[in-house]
Amino acid sequence: MPSASSAPSGDLAGRSRGFDPGDPLGLDELLDAEELAVRDTVRRWAAERVLPRIADWYERGELPEIRELTRELGALGALGMSLHGYGCAGASAVSYGLTCLELEAADSGIRSLVSVQGSLAMYAIHRFGSEEQRREWLPRMAAGEVIGCFGLTEPDHGSDPAGMRTRAERRGGDWVLTGRKTWITNGSVAGVAVVWARTEEGVRGFLVPAGTPGFAAAEIRHKGSLRASVTSELTLDGVRLPAAAALPEGRGLRAPLGCLSHARHGIVWGAMGAARTCFETALGYARTREQFGRPIGGFQLTQAKLADMAVELHKGLLLAWHLGRRLDAGRLRPEQVSFGKLNNVREALGICRAARTILGANGISLEYPVMRHMANLESVLTYEGTSEMHQLVLGKALTGLDAFRG
């Protein structure tokens, strides 16, 4: 057996650099220079622009600077950033994921603003729209001059969009839309809504500009989660649209579900941002908060919590990175996105709850970010597919048996 002195120098080379509690697995080494630059740029913007104000916005239940924030995010290239052309950045899926990570480390509402704008509304137009529709809307949306929303969920049909009641009927050369959509992020500030409706030909997508007669958007109040986010109900009362308002390739339920799958990739990363903030808050608190004459971080139970939190956080980051690389390579499957969303949001919630216990009573104070992130993640757990729906997606993939309507 070789002696310790004769062991290869690379075996424990990491010891010479010391252990980094912020990056215990050395995950930064998986990122290239451009990805690190994107991450750091978004992190600085969030620290300067969002963090000083977010607790107040959350407590007031509003996002008063949404239009200014959207234009600033457009200037950063964060809107529709993985799309190509029409003023979009054409960045990698990993760069987009890192952007979502840093935005949600500030607040889930800010990441939701970007996700809905880029991964739902802009992606739908980019993927399913006509060339004229792309040219009309995408450059202004990429710049943050126009905000978009995505109208799929209905009051009686959330997890089962196939049961939607919103209808579009042909009237001469026009379409007439009637129905309601709810829990629509950005709805009441959007300049254009991507609305999905049932037609005689099946589900189709339509672009509904704000101000169209018969179209109204009312903000939903009294939320206990995602309070620093605009959430709305859309009403379509005989909304008449020209034939050119229909997304020519947006036919069938697979179209909106494909948009959701694209957006869920950002959630896989974003949830880990919220978890990271709560972990870092708990770690800092444990090092300084004293009980029984010593910092609580010196007690075994607290260290066990912190160790488990760190393990799940960085496992989740590894999963996000792996799925991002698969998306960049064109090999990411919807079932794998469900895998990521199910695991990372669920584990992020667990990390936030453990952080809350470490902070004790201070954990419920908005002086700290933990309760805010914890409450936000309750919404993230539900939207764009509940945990139960993603379990069934994986269950079907594993067994070959469809349990959705069993």
UniProtKB/TrEMBL annotation:
Domain Acyl-CoA oxidase/dehydrogenase middle: 149-239
Annotated GO biological process: fatty acid beta-oxidation using acyl-CoA dehydrogenase; fatty-acyl-CoA biosynthetic process
Co-factor requirement: FAD
Keyword Transmembrane helix (UniProt): no
Keywords: FAD, Flavoprotein, Oxidoreductase, Transit peptide
GO molecular function: fatty-acyl-CoA binding; flavin adenine dinucleotide binding; glutaryl-CoA dehydrogenase activity
Protein family: Belongs to the acyl-CoA dehydrogenase family.
Entry protein name: Acyl-CoA dehydrogenase
